Protein 1
Amino acid sequence: MLLALSCLIATPAFADHPGQAQFVQEVAKETGKDPAALNALLNGANKQQSILNAISRPAEAKPWSEYRQIFMTPARIDAGIHFYREHRDLLEKVGKQYGVAPEYIVAILGVETFYGRNTGSYKVLDALVTLGFYYPPRASFFRGELKTLLELPDNQLAGPLDTLTGSYAGAQGWGQFMPDSIRDYAVDEDGDGRIDLQNSLPDIFASVANYFAKHGWVTGGIVAARAQPDGAAKPLTIKDSTPLWPVEQLEAWGYAPVQHLDPGASTTVQKFQGENGPEYWFTFQNFYVITRYNRSPMYAMAVNQLAQAIAQGVNSPETASR
């Protein structure tokens, strides 16, 4: 009887998910955490088909003309203006501290969660387990995020691991930080010894600003400006948003700026399918920084245009009287 009981105690927890046993072994070896406790936590997570459905139809698959309409709505702009004014002192303090224009902090929150109104209802463990064990195209990435989540100290989490909620991809809080971003960029701005991206506005604002600053945000730098190609403009192969050429080189190739730009400023050209046909934009270092948050150029342009609309509204006497 005692032998049977000892064997039962020594038996490792049953692994529900394919690849879980090896994953737990790796995490336990690297962190010293109890494998049985890790298995119990992961066994409590459920594969969610709705998560797999959601990741297969991202908003970034839409053309710019449709994508823009999701974020550049009067309701989102007006809410952003009101939010900025309501928290102006804190936003401008944090913006000055990190060298990031406050309207871009607000715009990130506006695009990601409508200023904290919708931070996601999926259990973070469900999301990362589903994508880490059941989504082969990006399983390695999401297993890495799951591993990071399990390694985060308690004071960097908004609550117990099995209660955390977020997006279908496992992003958390008003700024939708993935676990590695919480680890690397989240800030305890209010000094209470805890990073809370769900309830502390100082932590939320500073974490977004710190993310931008650490990725190379240029204080006072331009983000994007319209370009007008002529009929003989040189075709360009653009792989991402990295600034590659000085403005004057692109002008020589047939891309004319519609406003004055520093001829030596490093830039690249993005093409978007707008409502009235193709749109061409010079994009700069700060645009590239926004794409470190989300690699889609359309996402970065939506953040840029929302930020500009918010800044214009905040400084407009007409909207100030509303």
Protein 2
Amino acid sequence: MTQTIRPATPDDMPRLVELLMLDTQERHAEDEILWKMADDAPAQIEKALTFALTAEQQPFRQFWHVAEDGAQITGVIHAMVLPVPPIYAGPFGDPGLILPDSFVVTDAPSGTLEGLLAAAEDALHEAGARITLASYVAGEAWRTAFEASGYEPLTLYLSRSDLGDQGMPVSVRQATEDDIPGIVERSAENRQILFDIDPFWEIHPEADPRFSAWMTRSLTLRDRDMMVLGASEDLQGYIIAQPASRLHFPPAHDVTGTGVIDDYYHPELANPAALDRGSENSNALLRAAEAAFANRGMGAAFVVCPAGWMSKIELLEAAGYETAMVWSIKR
């Protein structure tokens, strides 16, 4: 029988749970702390699939496609339309994103992965996505397929699973409301560097007030630590240690032990090509975030870093971080 690629249906769920458990085990084998499996992983997968395939009201558009060889499903791919963060302009609209909970069995017919990728891209384009992002963790087959299809690395997610016990650096302190203007000012520098690295991160005209409002609200959230270096009137840098979200971790993983660092900047990192201003203060902020995670009982840190920000990558790798996931872009 000829292989077919089609949208998934609720009747496919038992087989999809099997495939996505194999997918989960591959990530777990890469790093059992970062990609910790939930105790009820199959149930969590089934719950997520049930919602995705049956709920009429969903927070974003998502697509599941399967490859079928005869009567056997040999692969699955998951994609979504990704809302643009409010501080970015998103001139090309909401991009499409192919998520890491996609899987093809090793003995699937040749071209299965490529057929699934094409189906996901077609669905995203029909939904209005003019740019497509793709993410992968484990499996050279996915990296090779994305590269062959024209994807290039956009964002690296670097992780460390040994946060140590070095404690909180004395130069770093918890942020207060008085620090918000300084954080916003430094964030504007950070955003400009992002845009200079890749115009994908075009800055929204209202980025400063929007970011200020979010930082003010973040101060009230007890699940994160907002830390700064320097006096409020001359703030030197900031870092936010927050809990992991489902955007980066498929439902079969237990994220309670993982923290994420996205908002992180110090002028030592202003040159994306080299650490020519030193790294003492940037390292102090990073150690502070790690200490905050450790104090909350977390065992892994996940740092978001543009693939073109070589100085930040150098700093992170020197601190023991390794690339755990890659988001690539196809324009």
Protein 3
Amino acid sequence: MSVSRRGVMKGGAAGALSIALAGSLESVFQTSAGAETSGYGPLVPDPKGILDLPKGFSYKTLSAEGDLIADGVTVPGKHDGMATYPGRRHDTLRLVRNHEQTASGVKPVAPAELVYDPAAFGGTTTLEVDRHGNLVDQQISLAGTSTNCAGGRTPWGTWLTCEETEGFAAQTKSHGWVFEVDPRGKRTKPVPITGMGRFAHEAVAIDPHTHTAYLTEDASKPFGLFYRFRPRAHRGEYHSYLEGGRLEAMNVRDLPDLSMVQEPGATFHCRWVKVPDPSAAATSTRKQFETITRSQKLEGAWWGHGKAYFVASYSRKSDGAAADHAGQVWKYDPHQNTIELELVFKAGGKFDGPDNITVSPYGGGVILAEDGDGEQFLIGTTRKGEPFAFGRNALNDSEFAGVTFSPDGRTLYANRQTPGVTFAITGPWHRLHR
């Protein structure tokens, strides 16, 4: 098509996109008629030029980069991974949000007991929001960490924030760890969960029954791995992961690179191999294997429907990958010990670079935050595997991140990374065309 994505989406000629799914193997825009049968219909241009959404949906902006929190304390930038939790009252909720800053930006300012490395600029902010979606309070809840990209919600109600780095020049402590943040602010300690390994962490998805954590790694030379961490303690307590466990890497026989799989529905049996040295004291964790399954740009992870979903943003042969694609979504079934390719964005298609992911309570699909080339979209899928464009960054080409629903399912929270801002999106969710 010669029409740009911007022109098509703003004109409402295509409100949904057919990505390569099981039963749908082409990457093309649907017609406007198709848009009315999948998703919430075409996007409506935002008069403010900030966020385009379907008809009937609206947004509020919360906690923007640079906002004043207290004297000498402002909101850091590079908003990224996020999750929701019950608030102090029955009619409020809390959001814990990452800041993917390394050694520059608006430095998080917090009490000394919440600071890990004074040289680092990453961390988390905790927001309190009322039932109308209004911000009522916010505070820095962890500081002195680095490059806090994604993370994951624990079954016992805390946030795991992940460092996507293996260190930087000015550090005073080692980096590349996972930290735990208590949304209530009572038990947060800047102590790395060393058992989960030191590597360029992206996200975590946790099985609520076994507390096994599934972790993604975004790294190159060589590419990153998909891990699982089986904790030694299984009591559902705040400190259970700090007591250690076994870190393993996924391996699929005769599949050295996940990009080799291009057909949705393809399923493979997994084997899990112990990581010899999770602390990576001498050798990076991903370099401790001669034979292992790798993937370029492993990103978001989310637990839903009894399975762990994880995302690869793209794969390029020019970077050393086995094949090209513009994004994959995989599903790991712990009962069958298998992975299945759920979705693939074909290289050269209209969407690219899926990143953060959340499972939607409406229709059983997912919401993906796009971090690709050019314009950035929030992408939804229905239970039937019909994808659609749900939102568009109308301000700039900065990525979306931190997609997560409120516990009651009425509000979708999402971040624009730069300049950092958190959106609260509400509307007729029940009208999803399935």
